[in-house]
Amino acid sequence: MFSLARLDWTIYLSWIGVLAVLVIPANKKEAIRWTALAFAAAGLVLACVGLFTWAPATGGSGIDALRASFKPFEVNLPWIPALGASYHLGADGISLPLLVLTGVVAVTGVLFSWNQQDRVKEFFAFLLLLVSGVYGVFLSLDVLLLFAFYELAIIPKYFIIAIWGSTRKEYAAMKLVLYSFAGSALVFVGIIALWAKAGGTTFDLLALKQVAFATDFQVFCFPLVFVGFAVLAGMWPFHTWAPTGHSAAPTAASMLLAGVVMKLGAYGCLRVGIFLFPAALTAYGGFWQWTIAVLAVVGIVYGAGAALVQRDFKYVVGYSSVSHMGFVLLGLMTLNTVGLDGAVLQMFSHGIIASLLFAVVGRMVYDRTHTRELSELRGMRLVAQLPFAATVFIIGGLASMGLPGFSGFVAEMQVLVGAWEHFPWLTIITGGGIVITVWYTFRAFLTAFFGEGGPDPHDEALPPITWQERAGSLILIALLVLVGLLPSVLLDRIDVSAHLFINSISQAVP
Fold first, then answer.
1. For a 10 Å CB count at each end of the chain, is N or C smaller?
2. CA dihedral 445, 451, 456, 461 (to 10 degrees)
3. How far apart are CA 253 and CA 500, in angstroms?
4. What is the pLDDT of residues 260-298, one digit of tens each?
């Protein structure tokens, strides 16, 4: 039965939305758009209600306290009894902000896709199907179920990019799928080995946590699961699918890909990789902890440097996503509450920032000028023709730089403070990535919007910004400022679950 206390309805409403848009006649495009928006908004409302009503049960310690934190929204039904797999869903202070993020990006993605004219029914059906998979991953407490939803979220991406994409869309879609499924293959091997080692009786995440796996077994499984998920998180050097996929995807798909799909990879690294195999991180002198931290910092600096030299406006934002996801991975490797708080908040913050920047570059600029080349945009002086787009981009850019007052500042500061405990030199190097971020943001902004020359008086004026674009932009900007000024809205919830998470793996943390 439907209830505001049933977060699993975020999944079901997305599925119902898919069916609803499919039964509407194809020529009723406006009805299809409003239907997609209504179901996306319904999921967002449920996620927000969950965020503000979540109150974990008190008492207990260790795994019992962690289990209690999922109780308010828990659903546990048989699924594949022969394998010990269950339809086990729940949400805590780590997953709730990500559910809200998914709803926000879904709603704004529909708004920024309002101009979609080609095969509108199929487009929004795939969009809602993708969103359902994302909700499923963030809610899953069964490893096999999480993996199933993870795959469900990837498949629609291929069709959205391959059918509605732009530059080299078939290549970009295939590259995304090949990288994703290569990572998925590693994850699948890891979870099957995990299931078999546990006696072949359960895939339940919390039950598996109570199995005493030998350190050598954890060292074997951890890289399979963590690296497999980290591919989708854009971890260097497995990141190359990301800029290509971002550049080819239509605006809503770019927003979802950078805003939430990359977070699925980071969430899998945290919820499965670190949670079930913590001893692997600290074994052999902390080899994996240090290796992943180094790769994260390389990703931060490399992604920023690559963004600095791009000529394609969308590639600038694509590589910036690789850089910012490096902060998430670095925060995960701190194995302390401050760093984990920052990593989860950075997932939320970057999801909003990336969605905003891709909306500007893809919808407001590219769909009007039909070019993403900075050298060509330089001569258009877009600040005169699209002042709203210029304003939105610099706000998103300032948030991306980590300017105080925006969510990015709080998230990155917590990651850096948490990282200093284990990796002081890496933390200092990370500062170089932040400096380059300022450089590439202003370079792109000044080149695209304040270039020399101006519009040809004989050319037609660019179409004005629509109400849907203004509404979507204001929603995203409001969240950046709200979380920047009142981070406790999310951090109070994240911190409770971060403490429980760290305590549950503390036996493997020196």
1. N
2. 20
3. 34
4. 888 999 999 999 999 999 989 888 888 889 999 999 999
